[in-house]
Write a structure and sequence with these properties.
Layout: H1 4-20, E1 43-46, E2 51-53, E3 62-66, H2 73-91, E4 96-100, H3 104-114, E5 119-122, H4 127-131, E6 144-148, E7 154-158, H5 166-175
Parallel strand pairs: 3-4, 4-5
Antiparallel strand pairs: 1-2, 1-5, 3-6, 6-7
Helix pairs in contact: 2-5
Length: about 180
């Protein structure tokens, strides 16, 4: 019994430490908005400092492409994909907004460097990313795209983004017949 006493004490100490230590597991990713729910309205500044309000675009379909960070490899490929397919979005009269948490100056530098021909929005602080359920624990936005319908509801969510072909992915979504959705379904 004396031989077991040190082991029992050690086990008790480990349990006490484990119970007292904060949870070390990674926080779960937030759940993005789903098809059919109202798209939260927002006003954000673009790469030129101009304010854009989602609510002013009622009556049009709108693409909101959230991405982690300007000028990173994956985000650059995704941005180029939208740039290279922008004529097709314009034919459909669908505005595209790239959204990330970097500031206006970062957006401007990214647009200038990559010759981007669409609007990037600065969600400094990540409030909009949080409203859409895509703000990660590290403060960045998750890579995900929402299509907002003319009534201001989420019409489609593209979660599996192919950064090299994302412009085409979203165009394919836009070209599918619209199926009315109920909120939360």
């Amino acid at each position: 019994m004396r031989a077991l006493a040190p082991c029992l004490l050690a086990a008790a100490a480990l349990c006490a430490v484990a119970l007292a230590a904060p949870d070390q597991q990674a926080a779960p990713e937030p759940a993005p908005l789903t098809v059919g729910v109202a798209a939260p309205d927002f006003t954000l500044k673009d790469q030129d400092g101009k304010a854009h309000r989602l609510g002013k675009l009622r009556g049009k379909r709108v693409v909101l492409a959230f991405y982690p960070a300007d000028m990173t490899p994956g985000c650059t490929l995704e941005a180029r994909s939208f740039r290279d397919t922008m004529a097709e979005f314009r034919k459909r009269r669908v505005p595209v907004f790239g959204v990330s948490v970097q500031d206006v100056a970062s957006k401007k530098a990214f647009c200038d460097k990559e010759g981007l021909n669409y609007t990037l929005l600065a969600d400094v602080g990540g409030k909009v990313a949080e409203q859409y359920g895509v703000k990660l624990p590290n403060g960045l936005a998750r890579r995900i795209t929402f299509v907002v319908d003319p009534k201001g509801r989420i019409a489609a969510v593209v979660e599996k983004v192919d950064v090299r072909e994302h412009g085409r992915q979203v165009l394919d979504v836009l070209d599918k017949p619209v199926v009315p959705a109920r909120a939360g379904s």
